Amino acid sequence: MKKKLFILCLSYLIPFVLSAQKISISLPEQSNKEYTFILSKGIKQDTIQKGMLSFAGDVIINIPEKEKYYEGMGSLQIKDVRPLNIIVNHEDFSVEQGPDQKYIFKNSRENEYLYSVIQEGARPAQDTTLYASSFIGLVRYMQQLNRLASQGGSLMEKANARLYALNQLDMDKLYTSGIWYNVVDGLTKLTPDRQLMAEDMVRLMKRIKSQEVFEHLANNLLKFRTKI
């Protein structure tokens, strides 16, 4: 009897122990569809949860305890539907899609900030306490690199882009942004001088705080070695 009671209590406790964060998602138009929820890590995508949306289009995403320090982009992937990209950053929150197809967030400063820009075209004041603010800066930098690679640019523009990478680019936040490859690939195209680019990458790596991010970039650069 005591053993059964212990197992029963444990069954209630396990979800709280193993889940570091809960995200409630409601997408009525996608009811009964299969989904996958992933977290971005460099050029990799870690599958956190998969299954099927309910008849009402609801699902609760449980971010596992091992990812409790994760700060970056998560993505709900549904076949033939544009992914729902949201910031995962320790917050328990909910998101639903309104009749105007816009996403409505509750209890998430991060995503409210991000989607005010995406959906409303707002220009909120920079808030360095939010990953969303850093993410927007990373996207703008990626766009700058893409433009320099595809359309060219002056030596001054390329020099400024290079100096930004060396002095300000946060590789740790880039790692979980979902645009890691685009930015790193763009950096390797800034200069045809392979020796200079290699030296820049070494300087960039010295500023990385996470060992995981450091090793990931090192492995990536081996794949990009023909470019730098």
Question: Helices and strands in order, then pairings?
Answer:
Layout: H1 2-18, E1 19-26, E2 34-41, E3 44-52, E4 58-64, E5 72-78, E6 81-88, E7 93-97, E8 103-106, H2 109-120, H3 131-151, H4 155-167, H5 171-175, H6 180-188, H7 194-206, H8 211-223
Parallel strand pairs: 1-7
Antiparallel strand pairs: 1-4, 2-3, 2-5, 5-6, 7-8
Helix pairs in contact: 2-3, 3-6, 4-7
Notes on the protein architecture:
This protein is an alpha+beta fold and 228 residues long. It folds into 2 domains: 19-120, Immunoglobulin-like, CATH 2.60.40; 131-223, no CATH class. 45% of the residues lie in helices and 25% in strands. The protein has 8 helices and 8 strands. The strands form 2 sheets. A 4-stranded mixed beta sheet has the order 4-1-7-8. Strands 3-2-5-6 form a 4-stranded antiparallel beta sheet. Strand 5 and strand 6 form a beta hairpin. The longest helix has 21 residues, at 131-151. Mean pLDDT is 90; it is low at 2-17.
